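Budget justification note: compute hours in this period were largely spent on complex prediction jobs such as the one shown. Inputs:
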Amino acid sequence: MDKALIPDGLKRCPLPVFSLWLLVLLGIIGWGVYAGVVVLLDALNVTGLNDYFGFGFYITIDLAIIALGAGAFFSGFLYYGLSRYFPALKELHKIINLAVIVGFVCYTGALAVLLLEIGQPLRGWFGYWHANVHSMLTEVIFCISCYAIVLVIEYVPIILENRKLDAIKPLHVFGHTLHELMAIFALTGTFLSFFHQGSLGGVAGVLFARPFAYRTGFFVWPWTFFLFILSAIASGPAFTALICRAIEKVTRKKLVDDSVYELIAKIVGRLLLVYIVLKIADTLYWALVLAPEFGLKLTDFYRAPYGMWLLVTEILICGVIPAIVLNVPGARKSSTILFLAFFMDCAGIVINRFVMTIQALATPVMPFDRWEVYVPTMYEWAPGIAMLAYCALVISLSYRYLPVFPREKELNP
Amino acid sequence: MSDKAHAQSGVRYGMAIDLDKCTGCMACSVACQAENNISFRPDESNKLRSITWMEVYLLDNKKDYPDYQFTYLPRPCMHCDAPHHSPCTFVCPVNATTRDEHNGIVTHIYPRCIGCRYCIVACPYHARDFNWWDPKWPKSMEAMLSPEVSPRMRGVVEKCTFCHHRMLKARSKAYNEGSDPDQITYVPACAEACPTGAIKFGNLHDPQSEVAKLAKDPRAFRILAKLHTEPKVFYLSKYQWVHKLSDNGLGEAAH
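Corresponding output:
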């Protein structure tokens, strides 16, 4: 039925099967939209947030998904910006479309969840109108919304490659022209992304009265600013690779050459190694110098359920181990180990965002404060899960109707 | 963050609370609630969501009888005087909360607040509350609302203002009478209501003011002085364990 829309010469699953999949996703999205509407109408009192945990699940999932969506800008930067100097990076051409789509869904999804997070969503535009130049959140608001626009511009030419749309001449010309300009948008996106990934780290790092989150830094930027950038570029491409492998598994097709995964593993491995060394240095400085200055010990920051296991899991298990694995050529050869390392890398970054958001608030600051535990409600889970379903929906539609993978035809004769 | 301080005027309002005089009667908290039109709900058992500008903590020395001692600690907003900005003010993305450098009072512009709660996260004293529900009062209480303080809408943050509407009234009066508005004194509702006179309020920059003298008292300390938030609320206690409990066991004097 929809054969005319499917890219020429490529096989896709039967429409009823695909429709069933879409129905499942739409059901989940409907559940999330319902929860979101309740939050907007009945206010944030339906969530697990309170005056102790001003930030919670919404911010955590936003920070995590934005970090994992960094594959779009960083792959674009490597491909459009650096591949002329390092020809090996041209290999990324085979996965760049998927990276853009993953970035697009991550950022647009995050923006939708962000709308629920603020108590006065109708005043969301005040961030532009009454902007406080000293606030890291202002930088985040500006850069994320600007970058989301850049991602739309990057996604449009991919959509216009659809067989039917491409047959319309003005659209073909428009899409082709956008393609020609893509390097400019990719580099604009890179500029914006470096700033907002960093600013998201700065959101926590500048809190000088919150010893768990506060870090010293360079000029106006705390060290978390740079660590968030590094961790995002060390995990974003890995997340893109994981999505690609998931599509391969579901469709039982080979979509990119193994050399692409190998290249991503090399890039991510080196970046993760640099990140984890700096993260350990940062943690040591925080534990041995900064915290004692505030009269605290490292152990004061950890208590069940936010125990020391979080620190060990984030840095050692999901940081040091994948960093080593991805830098050992022999280990990279095994597909299972490679993707497990990618997964651990991404999990470590998600834990980091959780820790810097929720644990940072759980830790008492006043000596007579009590530890509190934050439990998100269905009204937080549902929009978050729906956002993931939305990501799957757009990726599914894009894969079915757009030539996302340039090598798909050759690899699946 | 830059350490460069803003220029300060000759007025810096501050508070001194003598814990040795505080009986924990909560009159300050109730007076604050009434003066500032603070809304409440039929069930206020969830203290993490109840709006209380003047929170009263019960502290004890963690010892058994007969060594057991306790004290009450009323906690308004500290109106932090950190050189660059207060912890909460510089993080606000929409300039909804600012410190008036003319008098040091940290204010919050409710119609501008987007409810992102970044300021709540930034404040180590939990002095800020979010409006999780629409503000409502029993019908019979509506006539008692103060016309001088605007009620806050759902979805915005609110906090202690050192009753700055009283300050504005006093300044207007001084202006109309031809005297210097910067020389005015006024009393916030909590200090006025305190039956033991434990709460003193005034200009910290005026060496003759009672609050300035109390701030230099050997019994004086500030909460979390180690964080360099420079709170303008000083506490007084003759008990060392209270001092130590103010700043993560270090108990360093506030000045």
